[in-house]
UniProtKB/TrEMBL annotation:
Residues 504-531 form a coiled coil. Residues 491-588 form the Fumarate reductase/succinate dehydrogenase flavoprotein-like C-terminal domain. Keywords: Coiled coil, Flavoprotein, Oxidoreductase. This is Fumarate reductase/succinate dehydrogenase flavoprotein subunit. Residues 10-430 form the FAD-dependent oxidoreductase 2 FAD-binding domain. Pfam families: FAD_binding_2, Succ_DH_flav_C. The keyword Transferase does not apply. The lineage of its organism: Bacteria, Bacillati, Actinomycetota, Actinomycetes, Kitasatosporales.
Length: 642
């Protein structure tokens, strides 16, 4: 057996972004000895990149706001496929989570009378995003880290050891969740710098690993987003929910090629930025779908008046939910009215004075100046859709964040499914990860305190070590006699496949092609070979990440092929409308054979088994928050009858 360091903890949190840190703080405060593991340096998680803000109905900018309005907006944004109880808890608890951050030292931007300032974002009826310029994620992570340090200092005073109850293992990658029978017994992973293996034994594991964007060619996501947590859960026996829903943010940079995909925050539109085609037309007025017609302005004059008088005017169509705006940009470019580099124009320079732009959007100003030599205070930006967020994820219980089917496994943040339905509203991720990060930490701690300590199975540890070492011995001949493969080449082919064949607009025959290509890549990935040794070896790390990206990509492609309608972040050219009969259908992906999917199903047929389930009916008092005429547009016939 390989040399493996072992430690015992009560709760292990995989991921140190907003969700992971919030979970860890809660678990430690509830008395659980808690370990946090992250792939990157502590403080460098993807959450740091979040720009626009945290959505919470605090009512600071408009007293008409409240949790019910936020709940309604979230369901409309998700096209009523949201796990409604999650959306309810989220809307009710988000304000408390923001105020709590403030008591822990977060310095939010303020209104003139000293309250936390809130800005407009797409799909939100009122200004609702608490923010710190366009660097909100940085402040969120800084505050949570500060809270962790405060708890560690408390522990030092009591035990003489800062890390006795809360310890962070940075630059460590988890590759397997270990199990004792049906329940969780810990995690297996490796230190990225030394390559050494380790096992953390624990009755409860919280997965908070973020998203999957690195499976797509053009993405706003950081290098960490290889779908690890999704795959860890699948491999441990927990299903993934509605993986077809992938959000393509409408505004990523399109030029120069080296920065293609980097996000242009929605705050630009929230603060007054407008979208124009190559002829200078504000084209979004042509793309307001029927379900939103009553809520969006029909003329530029009305749209512009809304910024000063939102109570008597309707919103500009640039602030439609992201899926609508992304499709509109895609259609404009396809119709030949795009910008020189294949996007459209986003302009704030004619809408705000230069000093206001620099104050409200400092990161955007520097991003364009330094990366594209564009001065956004004087000229328009070129923007186009970029893969941004995955709505699909680990199927969880709404209240406790417990993953389905695997006792002791919890999930929170972007890796968890259900909360956002078919499309997430901007700002709803930072609030989601605070609300459900806390809930996951709380319930993991409770579960751990009542559970007998599990037994770690040495055979599983050996198998995990052998799996991790395989890229060093991939010499060809296994399993089909082909030559060793380069992990970087495989990754590029995977990204191209997902971008071209399972991207923003989807077609049946292309998704079938994608599944064939994924099957081929999966075979070749078994021969992914690396040279050198285990000390910081990025090729090896990527070879291991490929397993996760391939599994998750297959889930996305299979579910997208199955759902024969267009809804939120899933657009079918061959089934262009939203179909009410799909409103109450969830698609679940599970591993076809938890022991070894290759043996059971054969690689060409893939590793994922897909099943349908009917969603739980929306509670009547929550349905009563909507007008009947609106419900008619969304709900299936039998639901309306009931
Ligand atoms: P993350 O913050 O990504 O953390 C994941 C953690 O898991 C990391 O620590 C990582 O190292 C770790 N990890 C991953 N795999 C492993 C493994 N195998 N082993 C160990 N550790 C692992 N949302 C909003 O609500 N408002 C915004 O304004 C906003 N702006 C955004 C701007 C940009 C540019 C981007 C890209 C996204 C934005 N989002 C925004 C979305 C939001 O930032 C993310 O959805 C959110 O931060 C995800 O947080 P998380 O805690 O789930 O995961």
């Amino acid at each position: 057996m390989s040399v493996v360091d072992r430690q015992e903890w009560d709760v292990v949190v995989v991921g140190a972004g907003g969700a992971g840190l919030r979970a860890a703080i809660e678990a430690r405060e509830r008395g659980a000895r808690t370990a946090v593991i992250c792939k990157s340096l502590f403080g460098k998680a993807h959450t740091v990149m979040a720009e626009g803000g945290i959505a919470a109905a605090m009512g600071n900018a408009n007293a008409g706001d409240g949790w019910q309005v936020h709940f309604r907006d979230t369901l409309r944004g998700g096209k009523f496929l949201n796990q409604w109880r999650m959306a309810e808890l989220h809307a009710r608890e988000a304000p408390q989570r923001v105020w709590e951050l403030e008591t822990w030292g977060a310095l939010f931007d303020r209104t003139q009378d000293g309250r936390i300032s809130q800005r407009n974002f797409g799909g939100h009826e009122y200004p609702r995003l608490a923010h710190v310029g366009d660097r909100t994620g940085l402040e969120l992570i800084r505050t949570l880290q500060q809270r962790i340090v405060a708890l560690q200092q408390e522990d030092f005073r009591e035990t003489g050891d800062y890390e006795s109850r809360l310890k962070v293992f940075q630059e460590c990658t988890v590759t397997r969740v270990l199990k004792d029978g049906e329940r969780v017994s810990g995690v297996f992973g490796y230190e990225r710098e030394s390559g050494r293996f380790f096992v953390l034994e624990a009755p409860a594991v919280v997965i908070a690993t973020g998203g999957i964007g690195k499976s797509f060619k053009v993405t706003s996501n950081s290098w960490e987003y290889t779908g690890d947590g999704h795959a860890l859960a699948l491999l441990a026996g927990a299903p993934l929910l509605n993986m077809e829903f992938v959000q393509f943010h409408p505004t990523g940079m399109v030029w120069p090629p080296s920065v293609k995909g980097i996000l242009v925050t929605e705050s630009v539109r929230g603060d007054g930025g407008v979208l124009r085609d190559s002829e200078g037309r504000r084209f979004m007025f042509d793309y307001v779908p029927d379900v939103f017609k009553e809520k969006y302005a029909e003329t530029e004059e009305e749209a512009d008046r809304w910024y000063d008088d939102p109570d008597h005017n309707r919103r500009p169509p640039e602030l439609l939910p992201r899926d609508e705006v992304a499709r509109a940009i895609n259609a404009e470019v396809k119709a030949g009215r795009g910008s020189p580099h294949g996007g459209v124009f986003l302009d704030v320079s004619t809408r705000m004075p230069a000093e206001v732009i620099k104050r409200r959007l400092p990161s955007m100003y520097h991003q364009f100046k330094e990366l594209a030599d564009v001065d956004i205070t004087a000229e328009a930006m070129e923007v186009g859709p970029t893969c941004h967020y995955v709505m699909g994820g680990i199927a969880v219980d709404s209240d406790s964040a417990a993953a389905r089917g695997v006792p002791g496994l919890f999930a929170a943040g972007e890796v968890a499914g259900g909360m956002h339905g078919s499309n997430r509203l901007g700002g709803n991720s930072l609030s989601d990860l605070l609300v459900f990060g806390r809930r996951a930490g709380l319930h993991a701690a409770e579960y751990a305190s009542g559970a007998a300590r599990p037994r770690v199975d040495d055979a599983q540890v050996d198998a995990a070590a052998a799996e991790a070492l395989r890229p060093f011995s991939a010499e060809g001949g296994e399993p089909d006699g082909g030559p060793p493969e380069n992990p970087y080449t495989l990754h590029q082919e995977l990204q191209r496949t997902m971008h071209d064949l399972v991207g923003i607009i989807r077609r049946e025959h292309e998704m079938e092609q994608a599944l064939e290509k994924l099957a081929e890549l999966r075979l070749r990935a078994r021969r992914a070979g690396v040279e050198g040794h285990r000390q910081f070896n990025p090729g090896w790390h990527l070879a291991l990440d490929l397993r996760n990206m391939l599994l998750v990509s297959e889930c996305v492609a299979r579910a997208a092929l199955e759902r024969t309608e267009s809804r939120g972040g899933h657009t079918r050219e061959d089934h262009s409308g939203m179909d009410r009969s799909w409103r109450n259908v969830n698609l679940l992906c599970a591993l076809a054979d938890p022991v070894d999917g290759f043996a059971a199903t054969g690689p060409a047929r893939g590793r994922i088994a897909l099943t349908r389930e009917t969603t739980e009916p929306i509670r009547p008092d929550l349905l009563a928050l909507f007008e009947k005429e609106e419900l008619v547009k969304y709900l299936a016939e039998e639901e309306l009858y009931e």
